[in-house]
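Bit of a strange request maybe. I'm writing a small parser for structure token strings and I need a real example to test against, not something I typed by hand. Could someone generate the tokens for this chain?
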Amino acid sequence: DAVLVATRGVDLYDAVPVLVTDSKDLANTAGSLHCGTLLMPKLVKKYLNGAKDKKIGVTVKGCDAMGFYELAKRKQINLDNIIMIGVNCGGSVSPVLARKMIADKFGVDPEKVHKEEIDKGQFIIEYEGGHQGIYLDE
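Reply from user aminoacidic:
Good idea to test on real output. This should exercise your parser:
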């Protein structure tokens, strides 16, 4: 019936959940936004009636999948109506912490960053003028 996805809001720190009902709109979705954290299971439970009355595809990271299983065990969602679409996730960083880390550790204005990723324990940014990466445990 629909797909619940994350889209990029005003910047890469702003993940916006969107319920897509027309497949041509899926091309505008974000996949994983490591600095824009959403709790997809909570959104399905709270705003989509726990998927009790319609089938919903949802892009999920590993932690989202575990959340869906927990809510299903507690009979708070209908897992039979959830189609999980897994996306790779090396971790996530809160938007506030990401902005602070980019400014303090990279010496880059967070507003100049146009792409981020987490790969093999490293937080990598691309920005106007270059790219940098640091290990998250630094």
